[in-house]
Specification:
Blueprint (H helix, E strand, L loop, with lengths): L17 H16 L4 E7 L5 E7 L6 H15 L7 E10 L5 E9 H12 L3 E8 H12 L8 E6 L4 E6 L3
Parallel strand pairs: 1-5
Antiparallel strand pairs: 2-4, 3-4, 6-7
Helix pairs in contact: 1-3
Length: 170
């Protein structure tokens, strides 16, 4: 229904100023919109999050069996100690061979906390955190439900990273 845009002047070497700039930009927008509190979903830029698609050979492919294997696979596929990151996964269909495609996402805990703290300090309540490429995929599926039977390439071209998301049935 409405949107706002603020430009950040961030030197990639000084990326530590991002949380402060987020806070200032949000306060400015909330003041203009006369909002003091609201629930929000935070979408993280792709460059801040490690993402990897891993085909898992899980006998039967049931969700219980996938969940049992995921912890081990996370240790093998996330290139950081798991105690230093916040991580999750989502199952994204099967491969032609019957393996289960699992998308692992991980972000350094200190980075996530600094971003969330800057958002929360404005009076906003974060109800969920998403990664930009997956949020784009979800938005596409919601906005174009008739297109889910077609193969579609979504391009997310950003200032630091570009992502290709392919949506295809089965």
């Amino acid at each position: 229904l409405r949107g706002a845009r603020r430009e950040f002047m961030i030197d990639p070497v000084l990326d530590t100023s991002r949380p402060d700039q987020i806070c200032l930009a949000l306060k400015d927008i909330l003041k203009a919109w006369k909002i003091t509190r609201s629930d929000v979903i935070c979408v993280l830029p792709a460059h801040t999050v490690f993402t990897r698609v891993v085909p898992l050979e899980v006998p039967g492919g049931s969700s219980g069996q996938v969940a049992a294997v995921v912890g081990f696979e996370a240790q093998q596929n996330i290139p950081f100690p798991l105690e230093e990151v916040v991580w999750d996964y989502v199952v994204m269909g099967n491969t032609p061979s019957g393996a289960v495609n699992v998308v692992f996402v991980a972000i350094k805990t200190d980075l996530l906390e600094s971003l969330c703290d800057s958002v929360a300090s404005t009076g906003l309540n974060i109800t969920a955190v998403l990664v930009a490429p997956l949020a784009l995929y979800d938005a596409f599926r919601y906005a174009s439900p008739a297109s889910t039977s077609e193969t579609t390439l979504l391009l997310d071209i950003g200032s630091r990273t570009s992502n290709m998301i392919i949506s295809a049935e089965g």
